[in-house]
Input
Amino acid sequence: MYGAIEAGGTKFICEVARAPDEVLARRRIPTTSPRETLEGAGRFFLESVSALGPLKAMGVAGFGPLDLAPTSPGYGSLLATPKAGWSGASLLKPLQDALGVPVNIDTDVNAAAMAEARLGSGQGYRSVAYVTVGTGIGVGFHIDGRSLHGAMHPEAGHLLVRRDVRDMEFAGCCPFHGDCVEGLASGPAILQRWGRNLSECSDDGIPMQIIGGYLGQLAASIALTVSSEIIVFGGGVMALADLRGMIERSSAQQLNGYLPKPARIAGPGLGDRSGIVGALLLAIDIAARSS
Ligand code: ZN
Output
């Protein structure tokens, strides 16, 4: 049995499972302070252990930015984040201390990319990108069976994009860059600009074209840099509006026939479970390494 957490900015989804299709217990914990949230998660797993038996390992798919340098004293902690109270908080140590099992951690989007590569839309592809479009925009990569890390982890949601001429007024909502992809195309950017969700902006289709255009530029940048064979788009904004066709068109327009084999744009084969399934796979992997 394994423990898995998809640690998000608004909620922590906690599960105990034997396999991705064999979930034995589940709890949603609202994300409040680090202490309260992680104690709540620890309590759920301890209760599950008394009811169901011991855990072999835990996997955490966490919101970022995260310190994932294996030798860093802050390994598994959040770096500077606009999320109040969470900068420097460890997603790893409180769980290790409470549960006494190996804990494996990666970003929510790298974990989702791994889950889609192994069990979802990315099966059969060597190079899979996963993009979440929701409260923020994050991009994870799974290439030749491994998640992509570097000095930290990719942060392609903060790439700069060319402005749509119909969208020159809105300054963008990223506190660091203003009009990066996240600043222009995330859920909060849509809400700040038009006062409603994308699926409710159906009057003339222009908001959809603008957002699809920015996400298409992101897809083209991913195809040109990492050369992913498939780019899976998930997250709340994607679920609300059928943007995929728009992204495909915009990406093809940007690339203008340059790539002989452009990346396939797809929806998540695991629906909204890519992140939590990724967390479970992280747990299974570390248990296999530790035994
Ligand atoms: Zn940014």
Q: What stands out?
A: Strands lie at 2-7, 11-19, 22-30, 57-62, 103-107, 127-133, 137-143, 146-147, 230-234, 264-266. Residues 158, 174, 176-177, 180, 182-183 surround zinc ion (CB under 6 Å). The first helix runs from residue 34 to 52.
